[in-house]
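Re-running the complex after MR caught last week's input typo. The corrected sequence lines follow. Everything else is unchanged.
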Amino acid sequence: MIFTRITLAIAQRALRELRREPRSFVFLVGAPALLLCVVRYVFNSPEEFAGTGAMMVGVFPAFSMMVVGSIMVVRERNRGTLEAVLATPASRLELVCGYLAAAVTLAFFQALCTTAVAFGVCDLDTASPIWLVGLVAMLSGIFGMSLGLAVSALSKNEGEASHFIPGAMVPQLLISGCFWPVAEMTSWLRTVEGYLPLSAVTRSMTALRENRFGGMSLVYSVIAMLAIIAVSQVGAAASIRRRTA
Amino acid sequence: MPTRNFVHVSARVFRELRRDYRTMTLFIISPALVQIVLYGMLSTHPNTYNRCGLIVMGLFPSAPTFLFAAFMVHRERHSGTMEHLLTTPVARADIVLGYIVGFTLPAIVQVAISFAITYGILGIDVAGPWWTVGLLAMLNSVLGVGIGLFATNLVRTEFQLVLTLPVLGVPHLSLSGLFRPYNEMVGWQHAIATFLPWRYAVGALAELKDHTTVNATLLFNAAVTAGICVLLFTVAVQTVFRRRTA
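Corrected-run output:
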């Protein structure tokens, strides 16, 4: 019984709150597409753009969801919103599923917007069909939200959560191949690349670009993303508890 | 005109930063870390590494000072610290100068570590003298404070401040000339880049890759960067350091 009325109510509440804050809504849905356009014109032609561009279709949604997710969860925990929800008859499972449902909804619109701009405006060309790219972009968004949950567990306040952008996300962006092909990096850095969470996103997007329907590389990356999503959701469900009596 | 009061203001800012271990650690080690990663990425292409390593070495100090200044000043504006400060007989110029010194003081340590690693261990090979790169790096850390102070005018909450980071940072960096030299950009990119502070910072640094001496292009770009700093601080004096109540 995942889709109970309580789950839906929690998801609706989270979405409504986000909608009332237009900046974060625009940031989530519009920013990935906008940044994609900026990056497109750093390159001369669509062909040169394809390698980086395909990765960005996954990376930008993951990045923006991580930022918004981590800070929203930290804020709700510190302000007592989570406490208030836990005082209602909602179970922890329903609470986590509610937030997940909200994340899935957002990721859907985000992926729709990003993929449309990538193929329509930026002339991205991939071997795989558009719907599959969109689907993986959506998964990347949910994956980013899960990373955000993990970040929120490690931060006391919003400022600390924001440190993860320069401290953890920027190095990951550099290493996972967004700026420079991984194949040309030195061997120790390639070893590091293999263990970075964000590599799952870039690898699956590269697989989608190179092979029709991605091949085994896509399957591995998607399994890795799903596993990390599952672990962070279970971890969140286990660790959410009332602090006060 | 600033008086010696700015020393007290900067001492207070510095003391507050020092107590925040986590931010401080990130601040001190992040440029060195980025240099090591960059070396790992580009070491098979020495020419590319020398160019990007140089620019990142000189430009990166503006990122942590931006973060420091933006978050701290935003918090102080909204938690009332700024109000308290403005009720004292300290001039606004003192406060601004105090903040600049307080935030850029740790940047000296950071730049020193980053330079020691990049020149000593990673062996970057650039024509320009190291102290010129160092001066530009310090100038850019001051620029970071200026952009940070300015950014607090655009947001209401800390959350919005975080959102502006990628939205302003990515296009700014894309058009700054790090990835694509200014001369190779097309018309509309030139038009936007003309108004980007980092375009001048990058322009000054890029000159040092092939030139052993300080030339006119470098001086021009450095002067524009300094001018932008002055402009940003003038705006900050008028907007950030102002009493809201009473």
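None of the earlier attempt is carried over here. The mean pLDDT of chain A is 83. Chain A has one domain: 5-239.
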